[in-house]
Write a structure and sequence with these properties.
Blueprint (H helix, E strand, L loop, with lengths): L1 E7 L4 E6 L12 E6 L7 H14 L3 E5 L2 H6 L3 E4 L26 H14 L3 E6 L1 H12 L4 E5 L15 H21 L3 E6 L6 H9 L4 E3 L7 H14 L5 E6 L5 H12 L3 E5 L11 H19 L5 E6 L2 E6 H6 L6 H10 L2
Parallel strand pairs: 3-4, 3-6, 6-7, 7-12, 8-10, 8-11, 9-10
Antiparallel strand pairs: 1-2, 4-5, 12-13
The chain binds 6-O-phosphono-beta-D-fructofuranose.
The site of 6-O-phosphono-beta-D-fructofuranose (F6P) has 10 residues, from loops.
Length: 348
């Protein structure tokens, strides 16, 4: 565990020293809240359901907080019961709605949220979202409201976690969409350059690229040269008889329209660009995301129940584990270079 020495709100930096403390030792929490924050991800509803049900069966009072930290600041919340979360496990998006709150990034905003918690009697919160949301969870924990983060983002860019809620569904959606693009690409002997989401991370692009058999995959984590990584590969593949090509480009690289023009000019293969956009964030969660979300929501309440806050739940090698938020935010996750190398070798 780490103890806070000082906190600089403007720079969003915290200074810690290592010591053996738990945020609220020996405290049993009876009233908690749950919110979803940041970009929505399929499976968020399944996580909310698990949190509410776990809290209810353990005779805790649970509040659903609408629109993330903004809703908390505005007191936009309602008490939930076992039936409040019926028929949501299969739904994409988040029935609690979500937001990215500017106000919560200020010291005043955090203090207002803490005051609302005290007024209503909320003693701890499960925060379902990405790393921006975990910074908010850390700030509240430091302010005396223990929070547990549940990683939900299609980007899979939470370092302590092998797979985040929503990632698997999003990969499957991309695969289905690109399979459709492939049908028309093949019919016209074209090249299609497809941009997929992921913010500054390339996990979606790399894994979806493998799943659709892309000729080239461009991700921010690996440097590339258009001539070597795309044009030469297309020419080499043409010599073996192939006449259509799929290129997957991560959002963190972007520029697919220009890239498509460049490819067409250099290879004379008619080329189109497609930005898949927000269609990737919607849809019914896969089995994997529903189970993962249920496990994580369950674990988060178990942690809060005995007063343990300032933690992030994670999945590592098939096991549900948890980490200090500060440590989790400072971990680094790298791209699997063997996976990248394999994709490069077999997609030809
Ligand atoms: O973090 C999820 C994500 O979908 C990213 O992949 C993308 O860069 C971003 O959110 C888009 O955010 P918005 O919905 O605010 O445009």
């Amino acid at each position: 565990m780490l103890k806070l020495l000082s906190f600089d709100f403007e720079g969003q930096k915290a200074y810690y020293i290592a010591c053996n403390i738990s945020i609220l030792e020996d405290k049993i929490l009876k009233t908690i809240g749950v919110l979803t924050s940041g970009g929505d991800a399929p499976g968020m509803n399944a996580a909310v359901r698990a949190v509410v049900r776990t809290a209810c069966v353990n005779e805790m009072t649970v509040y659903g907080i609408n629109r993330g930290f903004s809703g908390l600041i505005n007191g936009d919340l309602e008490q939930m019961n076992l039936r409040s979360v019926s028929d949501i496990i299969h739904r994409g998006g988040t029935t609690l709605h979500t937001a990215r709150s500017k106000e919560f990034r200020t010291q005043e905003g955090v203090q207002t949220a803490i005051d609302v918690c005290h007024d209503i009697g909320i003693e701890g919160i499960v925060v379902i979202g990405g790393d921006g949301s975990f910074r908010g969870a850390r700030d509240l924990s430091l302010g005396g409201i223990p929070c547990v983060g549940v990683p939900a983002t299609i980007d899979n860019d939470i370092s302590c976690c092998d797979s985040t809620i929503g990632y698997d569904t999003c990969l499957n959606t991309i695969m289905e969409m690109v399979d459709r693009v492939r049908d028309t690409t093949e019919s016209h002997d074209r090249c299609s350059v497809v941009e997929v989401m992921g913010r500054s991370a390339g996990y979606l692009a790399l894994n979806a690229g493998i799943a659709v058999g892309a000729t080239s995959i461009l991700i921010p984590e690996v440097s590339y040269d258009v001539e070597i990584n795309i044009i030469e590969r297309i020419r080499r593949t043409q010599k073996t008889g192939k006449r259509h090509f799929i290129i997957i480009v991560a959002e963190g690289i972007g520029g697919v329209e220009e890239l498509a023009k460049n490819i067409e000019a250099k290879t004379q293969v008619e080329t189109r660009s497609v930005v898949l956009g927000h269609v990737q964030r919607g849809g019914s969660p896969t089995v994997r995301d529903r189970v993962l979300a249920s496990q994580m929501g369950y674990k988060a309440v178990q942690l809060l129940m005995d007063g343990t806050g300032n933690r992030v739940v994670a999945m590592q090698k098939g096991e549900i584990v948890d980490f200090d938020i500060y440590e989790a935010l400072n971990m680094k996750k790298s791209i699997d270079s063997n996976l990248y190398k394999m994709a490069h070798e077999i997609s030809i």
